[in-house]
Design a protein that fits this description.
This is IPIL2 protein. It is a single-pass type I membrane protein. Belongs to the ITPRIP family. This protein is mainly α and 211 residues long. The chain has a single domain (45-200), classed as Poly(a)-polymerase, middle domain (Orthogonal Bundle). The chain is built from 8 helices and 3 strands. It has helices spanning 45-58, 65-80, 87-94, 97-108, 121-138, 159-162, 175-190, 193-200; strands at 13-17, 20-24, 40-43.
Length: 211
């Protein structure tokens, strides 16, 4: 008779209300842009889904914002193969998926959303890369959901989240590291036109997963 074993990883979480949770961070392994001394992270998945739902209603039917995010993640992962440690790990930590989503959400709210029609995919992707580069150079990218007064009311954030102290997602990294990531990001973008064309083609495109 066959025996099936399954490993289950339990992650402690503290509910904050309205589907918000503080989740325990692993003692080892990737921690994204969080400071090394951080023990808990904020899970705001429900709020992200509300924001994406609002964007779907407000943006053009053929909006390219999720495609931009997926392509940027692909460029990040592709560039990682040519990097050596320890910078390879720093590259992935600085440009974590949460940082990329935060940059995208922040840029989207600067409007107009009509400019995100799919016909402007390359232009909007370049805007996102340049916006992220500027954030890296300034060493500032604020968490989107903490203390952000520009979030649409339709997203319905709890009051304590709106009134929370803003958090800089890049504060855990030193200036030289962020400058080097900014340089490599632009270098990757300049060398990637063939990748952009491939990802933009319906022949190669797959439905974009939720960020």
């Amino acid at each position: 008779c066959c025996h099936i074993s399954m490993a289950v990883r339990l992650i402690p979480a503290i509910p904050l209300g309205d589907a918000l949770y503080l989740t325990a961070l692993p003692p080892e392994g990737p921690r994204g842009s969080l400071a090394p001394e951080a023990l808990w992270g904020l899970n705001a998945s429900r709020q992200e889904q509300r924001l994406l739902g609002w964007l779907k209603e407000q943006a053009p039917a053929a909006s390219c914002h999720l495609k931009c995010l997926q392509i940027l993640k692909g460029l990040r992962d592709l560039r990682r193969h040519g990097l050596e440690e320890p910078f390879c790990s720093q590259w992935g930590r600085v440009l974590s998926s949460y940082v990329l989503k935060t940059a995208l959400f922040s840029l989207l709210l600067q409007g107009p959303l009509e400019a995100w029609d799919e016909q402007f995919l390359v232009e909007r992707l370049e805007d996102l890369v340049l916006y992220l580069r500027d954030c890296l150079r300034k060493q500032v990218l604020m968490d989107f959901f903490l203390g952000n007064s520009s979030i649409p009311e339709a997203v319905a954030l709890p009051r304590f989240l709106k009134e929370a102290a803003p958090v800089n997602l890049l504060s855990a990294f030193d200036g030289p590291t962020l400058d080097l990531v900014a340089f490599q990001l632009i270098s990757t973008w300049i060398q990637a036109p063939h990748i952009i064309r491939m990802y933009s083609s319906p022949r190669y495109w797959r439905p974009a997963p939720a960020p």
